[in-house]
Specification:
Blueprint (H helix, E strand, L loop, with lengths): L1 H24 L23 E8 L2 E10 L10 E5 L10 H9 L4 E4 L16 H14 L5 E6 L1 H12 L4 E7 L16 H9 L3 H8 L12 H10 L4 H17 L13 E6 L14 H6 L3 H11 L3 E6 L6 H4 L1 H12 L1
Parallel strand pairs: 3-4, 3-5, 5-6, 6-7, 7-8
Antiparallel strand pairs: 1-2, 2-4
């Protein structure tokens, strides 16, 4: 009997440690390979990745997503649905997923078709189609109610989703959404083939220089979000990524949502980093007067909250385009207070 007890204690301890390591391995920062293909094979996401099969414009596509469950899951509680920005993928929500699962929320994080680990088909991309894909994902997972959080381009998509499926969206959070101004009135039009040629010439240096505009001060932990897309530029199938990027840029340019903000009926929170000056296509603006007024997020946030009658605004001083990366604690605090 003594022998059994002495043998079982280290075994139980070993099993506990294995369980702990497996559970937490998904939430650690992964190494980024030097080369990544169009669907990021070889790059580990913070939580297990699943796939939804879709058919769009007669093309077979796969939509990648993470579905993170808390230890104590209440199925009656709305899930949190996180929608990524244009130059990102679901993995950059790592800290936010970890935080909200610790608060007891189920968190669903898709990579939209054309991004991340999802397929990169050449399509007529539209926010309506992306919203439809996302609705199909929720239907497949049996989700009927959600707290919807969209960052940057994800804010445009979240708005479109909320307009199309208001019965699903309990509350809406827009984190520094792009599209709070009509880019067609500010930025000269770029034909798709020219946009593609520009994307095809992307380098790690150009990505880093652009990403530095997202933050008032660059930190080493932001490097991951440069290295992942940079690794794709070295892949033989980067042409797929570049074309999808050009096509989704055109989607953002051609499909503004600002004229429909007043139609939103659900409680809405705008979290706006006050140092953000992001404008999609900013480098193409040659008129200095236009450049001076474009992308003024403090002003755009106030205007948007006046358009959405059921909204409130949280401004974060000295914060740039990505609050959930720059000041995660402040972002999570603002969102948690709103969701309650």
């Amino acid at each position: 009997m003594v022998l059994i007890i002495q043998w079982r204690k280290p075994v139980l301890l070993t099993l506990f440690l294995i369980s702990f390591l497996v559970k937490n391995a998904w939430s650690q920062t992964p190494a980024v390979p030097e080369v990544l293909d169009a669907t990021l094979t070889g790059y580990t996401y913070p939580y297990p990745v699943h796939y939804l099969n879709l058919k769009i414009e007669n093309q077979a596509c796969r939509m990648a997503y993470m579905d993170a469950l808390p230890e104590k899951f209440n199925a009656a509680r709305p899930v949190i649905l996180l929608l990524h920005g244009k130059n990102f993928m679901g993995a950059y929500w790592r800290q936010t997923i970890r935080y909200f699962t610790s608060q007891g929320y189920r968190v669903i994080v898709p990579d939209q078709v054309g991004f991340g680990k999802s397929s990169k088909p050449s399509l007529h991309y539209s926010f309506h189609q992306l919203a439809t894909n996302t609705r199909q994902l929720l239907d497949t997972l049996g989700v009927t109610k959600a707290f919807l959080i969209g960052h940057s381009m994800g804010g445009m998509l979240a708005t479109r989703f909320a307009l199309m499926y208001p019965e699903i969206v309990v509350k809406l959070v827009l984190e520094n959404p792009i599209g709070l101004e009509d880019y067609r009135a500010l930025v000269p039009y770029t034909p798709l083939d020219i946009a593609y040629q520009k994307e095809a010439k992307t380098t790690e240096e150009s990505i880093r220089n652009y990403f530095k505009t997202y933050f008032p001060e660059w930190q080493p932990e932001y490097d991951e979000w440069v290295k992942v897309p940079a690794a794709q530029t070295r892949s033989k199938d980067y042409t797929e990524v570049a074309l999808a990027s050009a096509e989704t840029y055109d989607m953002i340019y051609q499909q503004p949502i600002i004229y429909e903000l007043e139609q939103l009926q659900m409680p809405t929170l705008l979290v706006i980093g006050q140092a953000d000056r992001t404008v999609v296509g900013k480098a193409n603006i040659k008129d200095k007067a236009v450049l001076a007024k474009a992308g003024n997020y403090p002003s755009l946030g106030r205007k948007a909250v006046n358009q959405i009658r059921t909204s409130k605004l949280v401004g974060l001083p000295n914060v740039g385009h990505i609050p959930h990366l720059q000041v995660p604690e402040a972002f999570h605090k603002a969102v948690t207070s709103f969701l309650k």
